[in-house]
Amino acid sequence: MSDRDNNKNISALMERIGSDARSAQELLAIAPTKMKNKALNASAHALRQTQDHIIGQNSKDISYGSKKGLTSAMLDRLSLDENRIESIAKGLEEIAELTDPIGSITDEWERPNGLQIQRWRVPLGVIGIIYESRPNVTADAGALCLKAGNAAILRGGSESFHSSGAILNALQIGLAEADLPQTAIQLVPTRDRAAVGKMLTMNEYIDVIVPRGGKSLVERVTAESRVPLFKHLEGICHTYVCADASPTMARDIVVNAKMRRTGICGATETLLIDQDALPMLTNIVDGLIETGCEVRGDSDARAVDSRISQATECDWDTEYLESIISIRTVSGLDTAIQHIAKHGSQHTDAIITTDPTLAEKFVNHVDSAIVMINASTQFADGGEFGMGAEIGISTDKLHARGPVGVEQLTSMKYVVRGTGQCRP
Fold first, then answer.
1. Is 133 helix (H, G, I), strand (E, B) or coil?
2. What is the CATH number of the domain that holds 54?
3. What's the structural domain count of the chain?
4. Residue 366's CB: how many other CB atoms inside 10 A?
5. Which of 143, 351, 368, 391 is most deeply packed, by most CB within 10 A?
6. What does pTM read for this prediction?
7. What pLDDT, in 10s, does the model give residues 105-127?
8. Domain range for residue 290?
9. Are 317 and 343 in contact (CB under 8 A)?
10. What is residue 4's predicted lDDT score, i.e. its pLDDT?
């Protein structure tokens, strides 16, 4: 088959998926909460019932990813086992328990002329999600879109192709049991990158696209998309240790923020340490090295601990997504804020301090989607925020910022009730 014929086939495939999604969304927009919740709970049950099949399909993806040379962190993101499948299933049930935002009245008022005005939450429409190796995104994204009355077109990474297909099957079993159209959640059934290019032009079918992946993916989507986006470019997250911080708390938080899962966007990549806090650095480095982390730092940090290798200017701008952390010494809160403003990605940044004045200044001056006080940056997650799950963390400032959950997947409309008023 020629490239031209292949592109025609991909275009026709995506047009059909888009048309089916638009038709399904018209039904979802008016689907009662009970019906949507039934689909979510039935999908969770189907995940548990088909877990052996899902794990078998995942093994194919692990083999494929290993041959491609994925890092251990990326393979960890890709891997599924019984515990992770159970976590995904529980996530669907938690989404079912969330308040349905659709049709809720967020505000209402009466004008002097007697007009009654209400602001309602409504679905966004059809949402396209383009993501890389995490197969759990298939369930999270599909479920969140469903709860908010949106149809979902999912394009998973080539590495998670088989796993995502097996998870989609469970979601569609749930939709069928609730008498909702199975095309409400669809997965692009090809690894061909031309499908992504087509998605980015389908503004007659897709209302918003969420790219969830590495820098190259987000840059491509941002450059090529004709559809509005919710995006974050990268997660260069910082933890700043003040001089007054508890040494035990500092060690525990930094190690967790870096090493709990190194491949997620909320992992701390740079430790900023106050020059007056350097006496506690060796204790922190002990914890990092004990858990297998490579530690790089500036000359002040290296003077304290010879196990720290020399950092370069490039390190301050690197999202490692693996067991590496950079350490920079700063002369107070203002310097820390300046470093984050210059090198951060406005994703998640944390301060460790016992001084509430320093904490509040940090919160007010660090312009990131998530700012934390005395907590690990690994909590940058919709599920941990009580949102059930998330499609991603948006660092945009328009429409949605931070974890994109059910409420963020809605828009507004105004309902105006009159008694015959005419505008003079």
1. coil
2. 3.40.605.10
3. 2
4. 22
5. 143
6. 0.83
7. 999 999 999 999 999 999 999 99
8. 237-379
9. yes
10. 62
